[in-house]
Amino acid sequence: MIRCRLKLYITGHSPRSELALRNLRQICDRAFDGNYELEVVDVLEQPQRAEEDKVIATPTLIRVAPPPQRRIIGDLSERVMVLRGLGLWDPDLEATQGDR
Length: 100
What we know:
This protein has one domain (4-93): Glutaredoxin. The protein contains 4 helices and 4 strands; from the N terminus they run E-H-E-H-E-E-H-H. The protein has helices at 15-32, 47-52, 79-85, 91-97, and strands at residues 4-10, 36-42, 60-65, 70-73. The chain has a 4-stranded mixed sheet. Strand 3 (60-65) and strand 4 form a beta hairpin.
């Protein structure tokens, strides 16, 4: 069973987009131990998807599941802030994992 389903909107292969994707994969691999789904949407290739999801800036990360939907805009460099913003930060788990 997938613990989290995410959608990341980026703009092409810009350094900012690549940084956000790399940061997000590191966060998710650590927090979810690979138990997540990530869909990456390039707004240059699929602008209609960004319009449907009302994405006005990139990179934008949307937590699709579990509900309710949550959003974060930026390069996703602050791991704890990303997890808190997504409503997925577990301080008890953080205490046992430390800063690996």
